[in-house]
Amino acid sequence: MTATLLDGQALADTVKQQVAAQVKGLSITPGLGTILVGDDPASHSYVGAKIRDCEEVGIASIHEHLPADTQQAELESVIQRFNSDPNVHAYIVQLPLPPQLNEEAALLAIDPNKDADGLHPVNLGRLVMGVDGPLPCTPRGIQLMLETYEIPVEGKHVCVIGRGLTIGRPMALLMALKRPAANAAVTVIHTGVPDLAQYTQQADIVIAAAGVPNLVTPDMIKPGAAVIGGGLTREGKRILSDVDESVAEVAGWITPRLGGVGPMTRAMLLKNTVDAAAVNAP
Prior knowledge:
The structure is a single chain. By secondary structure, the chain is an alpha/beta fold. The chain has nine helices and eleven strands. The protein has helices spanning 8-24, 41-57, 72-84, 103-108, 121-129, 137-148, 168-176, 197-200, 261-280; strands at residues 4-5, 31-37, 60-66, 90-93, 157-161, 185-189, 205-208, 226-229, 232-235, 238-241, 253-254. It has a six-stranded parallel β-sheet, with helices on one face. Strand 9 and strand 10 (238-241) form a beta hairpin.
């Protein structure tokens, strides 16, 4: 068996075309803000990619780069400025922050309605309740990938590896909602579970979001299952997935090491931004 590759890059390009069309239909120009503190190379690269994405689809990019020795009051002053700026419809504070800064306090200071990442406690609460609000970008992108490739989800067993705030926990919530491309039986496993395979071998869909390279191996997967590598780890210039590439020999569908979930996360950031702008458009 050779798995069907879930081409996240191709799907992200389609989403970006849809976003560009949506932008043209608005009477205002959506604005995505980015706040970057310090000089972390990975963060610089990621923010730069977001700025280029905005240019491609007609979204205005409002960027603030603060020095590494920025103090909490200075950072929160910029956050409040973005909260009150009508040209910023959604924005992110790029993580990680330098050690002298309180990430929790910074994220709590974001206006929930301008939360481009969908990770503010208010928006996670909306997700728990099943009410509308900005969805976390990576889980939203994974769900769209499953839906686009017509992978059955409703009533199926989804196993999420990882309980992190960015992917694991919101992914589990999203898959359990009574909605299309969801309504599944969901199991969440993590470092506190000694034998991951006893759960993954029963799953129709495995979503790995642990940040452990090559954690998921072929013996852990039920033949024909869909396997999503949501966790990525950098080793020098090389990016490694939580899913070993040999899993393709067993799975029915699989994300590639590159061009899988990552492009979808960035595409969903654009979608959250234009959705926020549409709410405010006359």
